[in-house]
């Protein structure tokens, strides 16, 4: 399995095998992609865009403060923010499209 697919497999597994909510699945995408480090550059950006796109495709809007978004993604990638904390942050900012 290639690195990008490994990052996404975490979220797909969570969606099928757990009671995860939409923010938890989006957080799993962000976590998996940021930790897989599949690309030479842009892993955190790719992880964030994937999570937000997943939310949008499922009927949710998420528009955080840009500085807060950078802080949270850097925290997730470095381990200062765990996947559950990232999911809570996402859930707090969800709205309808």
UniProtKB/TrEMBL annotation:
Residue span(s) of domain Fido: 1-92
Domain of life, source organism: Bacteria
Alphabetized Pfam families for the sequence: Fic
Molecular-function GO terms, alphabetical: kinase activity
Signal peptide (from-to): none
InterPro entries: Doc, Fido, Fido-like_dom_sf, Type_II_TA_Toxin
Gene3D superfamilies cross-referenced by the UniProt entry: Fic/DOC protein, Fido domain
Name by which UniProt lists this protein: Death on curing protein
Organism: Lutimaribacter pacificus
């Amino acid at each position: 399995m290639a690195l990008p697919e490994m990052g996404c497999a975490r979220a797909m597994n969570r969606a099928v095998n757990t009671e995860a909510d939409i923010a938890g699945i989006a957080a799993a995408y962000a976590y998996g992609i940021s930790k897989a480090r599949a690309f030479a550059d842009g892993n955190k950006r790719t992880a964030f865009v994937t999570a937000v796109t997943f939310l949008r495709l499922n009927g949710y809007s998420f528009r955080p403060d840009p500085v807060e978004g950078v802080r949270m993604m850097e925290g997730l990638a470095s381990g200062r923010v765990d996947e559950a904390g990232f999911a809570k942050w996402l859930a707090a900012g969800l709205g309808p499209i």
